[in-house]
Amino acid sequence: MTNESIVSVLPESDQPLKIALVGSSGGHLAHLLVLKSWWEKHDRFWVTFNMPDSHDLLESERCEWAHYPTTRNIPNLVRNMGLALRVLRSERPDVIVSTGAAVAFPFFVLGRMMGIKTVFIEVYDRIDHASLTARLCAPLASSFLVQWEDQLVFHPKAELIGRLM
Hints:
Blueprint: H1 3-7, E1 18-23, H2 27-33, H3 36-39, E2 43-49, H4 52-57, E3 63-66, H5 74-91, E4 95-100, H6 104-113, E5 117-121, H7 132-137, E6 143-146, E7 159-160
Parallel strand pairs: 1-2, 1-4, 2-3, 4-5, 5-6, 6-7
Helix pairs in contact: 5-6
């Protein structure tokens, strides 16, 4: 599947959408950046970590800085839940798109409660087991996308989109 056909499975509208792009820095952020041909024509904002790569890659983008680390860090999960509540209330996005990691979970929980569409894309390096964030976000996702056929074993209800990178 080409990158253009991959973005064809993402939400579209006659009018520009407001998109929340939520992901950790590093590889998770890189996966979201690959979708530029889709998100560049929409009103968007990013939620990621305040790290050097995020600053460099998102220099001209609107960003909200999530609390790090998130993996199994309960205090930062609570902080990020507060961030998600504040951001989602003020921004009112049409859709939340995430590749993980844990920063996605609070946005998916509150997004679901607020009736916001949520799209989760499992990262390509998780071929032998599902990521914790994917397992948490799958029941909350409006659309759940995987990049490898092998990932369907762990996510049988997912849609196979092919590799982003």
